[in-house]
Amino acid sequence: MYKRLLIFxxxxxxxxxxxxxxLIPTSTVYVDGAGMGIQPGDTILLEAGLKPYLMLKxxxxxxxKYITFINHNGKVEVSNNDFYYGIVTYNCTYFRLTGTGDxxxxxxITITASNGVSNGLSLDEFSSDFEIDHIEVYNTGFAGIxxxxxxxxxxxxxxxxxxxxNSVFHDNYVHKTGGEGFYIGHSYYGGYNKVCGxxxxxLYPHDLINVKVYNNIIDSTGYDGIQMGCxxxxxxxxxxxxxxxxxxxxxxxxxxxxxxxxxxxxxxGLCYNNSIYDGYGTGISIFGLGNMWIFxxxxxxxxxxxxLVSGPPDNHHPYGIFCDDRTTIAGSSFNLINNTxxxxxxxxxRFWSLQSSNNRMYNNLIINPGVKKWDFxxxxxxxxxxxxxxxxxxxxxxxxxxxxxxxxxxxxxxxIAERDFHLKPGAPNIDQGIVLDSILNMxxxxxxxxxxxxxxxxxxxxxxxxxxxLVMISPADTALCEGLSFELSIDSIFPENLYTYQWFLxxxxxxxxxxxxxxxxxxxxxDAGTYKLSFSNGFTEAFSNEAVLNVIQNPTVWAGxxxxxxxxxxxxxxxxxxxxxxxxxxxxxxxxxxxxxTTLQSFYFPGQADKTNGSVILSAxxxxxxxxxxxxxxxxxxxxxxxxxxxVNQQIRVYPNPTGDQLYIDSGKDxxxxxxxxxxxxxxxxxxxxxxxxxxxxxxxxDSGIYILLLLFRNKTEVRKIIKQ
Length: 725
Fold this sequence. Notes:
By secondary structure, the protein is mainly β.
């Protein structure tokens, strides 16, 4: 075997621009990190493509800086049917093997190794302190993922000489395995005999400390879904979904185990919030040291798939949860709390540990155990051993129901067929448990919502979160200026993750606004309207009161285009444009005066200083009703002696002025296209469309006073002040 491997010894390539990034080509199947200069914190890219197997040997990061092995430019596919493993690590520490290198693939590394004794991924030969994630393992001859170093005759890997630390497995998909899905730690905590030369030695497997297995999907394993062994401290198995464990369904399977989860010999820790469905054996088997907490697990149809019989020759008894004294420390305890066990083939909880004491059996929901006709109470929780010993247990808050419910007619769960075990309103197990405030780790349910929510804790894995009768949001009615920030929140205080939320504006859901607080950083006009908040416990929905937001738009104003007029003109007719305002005024930096300074349309009479300076700035300001921002716009009025066009100007005659009757207009060479006569307030008195050089206006009926005459030519506009006598 080794000659075959050495043919593929890696020549490691470093990218010149990334000194700490290295590449393992697809063609390379054996990599020895010793002497290659790999440093803690380095990243090693696994080139995408198909390879038969891969051995990683002698790679060592540090506790602060793991070495990362990650797929590169696609999916890495490892597949063989004639070798002992798919991927194996030998003597590697402080590393991460992850399939997150390409966003197109949730599982960026896939492994198949269908030889009858092969493991998909094996973390072997003193490998420790690692993280394994986003890897798919399937069609393996034996275990999907194996993690242990077997005892050797030199004892270097035995208990007391080697300990495996900090092993984390998450977000992996393991299915269709010949043996266990996850095989972590050795099965024989009490030791076993091994022939070493001419001697037979009793060897003890090494301990494991701090092992986490979470968020994995395990399906159709030949033996146990997850088997933990020798994890003496810091074991956590949670948030896993395990289906169809133990599909071998034969004598071999019974010998090696067909449980969903095994908290095996030498193990102590937590097993919670797991879903275990349709297994061929027991849901959870417990053979550990004690001081173990098994809670918030959902176990459905344990053993119902098996064809093995309860009597001879098989004597197959699949329980919901089973516990015995294989490695129990005297005086320790096992705690089975708030588990939901539905339709197990045999007894729901069978507890045969006599070495332990003060074992808690609290708040479990048990429905329809298969042997209910044998003995109702013992079919639910049986603490009597085969020799009629009685385990030391504390039992309270459990809810038992022997009724056989069809998936679509049960009174407890929203939808068993869809594996939705949230409680229906009025479910009989609501508030039937006991409050566990004083017990460590018992403060949340399967959804990580706080317990209790009602008068008492609910029996089973899920806590029913009833909706409050009224939830108020505030502020109720608000008027705010455009551009400001705005916040709406509920007046009540609820535990985190109790409800899901959705904000609505004018009865339409606001995308991405799904928290208890609504914050708008910068208001715009479209944010105005009626807001409300929906909140749901997963099966019913309620709404808060409505809150009305009025967005006051900031004013806008435009004074007009910059303009040039001649000295001899009386002034400039002004017509500003403004929106969203309640007050308006004109101002000047010169010495002229406005006919009126509070209307959009006005007339500006330049002063002597304006003419001396040659220009003046006229400002239009609009104000909103509230304290919202004002708006200001300026135009520059240029005053010109117009000496270069004097003859042209002299050609335009408006006479007599003053007049009390007729007004004559002689435009000379250029025809007048239109004219407009306004009073000093800007009101239009007369407007005509023309194309004449000569025009007569009858102003006899007009009131005496000053008027402004605007004459529009093809390339200019002329303004005259008219006095009506």
